[in-house]
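Mods, move this if it's the wrong board.
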Amino acid sequence: MSTEVSIQTPMWSLVRAWAVHAYTASGAAIALLIVLAAFDGNAVRALWLGLLALIIDGTDGMLARRVRVKELLPQFDGARLDDIVDYLTYAFAPVLLLWSGGYLPGGDTGMVVAAVPLLASTYQFCRVDAKTDDHLFLGFPSYWNVLAFYVVVMDLPTAVTTVLVLVCSVLVFVPIGYLYPSRTVFLRPVSLVLSAVWLVVYAVLLAQMPDPSSVLIAISLAYIAYYVAISFYLTARRRRRDQAADRPLAASSSGRPGTT
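Not the wrong board. Structure tokens:
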């Protein structure tokens, strides 16, 4: 099948499809640069690179759908590539940043704390139901890069960072549906605009380091509050829908009148 596609498809279309995959794969190189910045003790540079990784991850799916990479390159698993890159940029590199920067406890305790989110994220990234049919992330979607951003910008104490890391690790296993800004249909235009604003504020706060504006931090956290609130609302709505769908089945199995 792939041979037929290659013969019948204009070369430029194939080049564009491979270019999108290369665009996604560039995140792996960015993850390496984040790690190097972390070991150099330059947390701000690491976060700038993290912002670049966020932008790539937020746009590569749109480009892939527009270029029709699945149709043109059926022999290449772009979803697996995306998961590999996301694990590196969303989990491994930011957790290493927290550990190497002294934001986690020292010694063996810190290594154990750092290992917990990495292990939890391996589970998250291997779940076949990690993304629901209504485009939600099931369980905390391993946003360790976002957590690392706030830890660095707000200069959170080690104890607070440790609690946040452990709580979010547990939430990976809790079946809450989290907003997928670029795919969730509910309030999608609003979510996309607010996400873009959040990215801009992210950049401004980094430019202001080491003295970021408390007002901009509050604005940035307002988006997080919106994200969590919408996620909880959609989770509750999804559960009500599932319960309503189960009622006719329960009634049918109990042999009540009026059922078939």
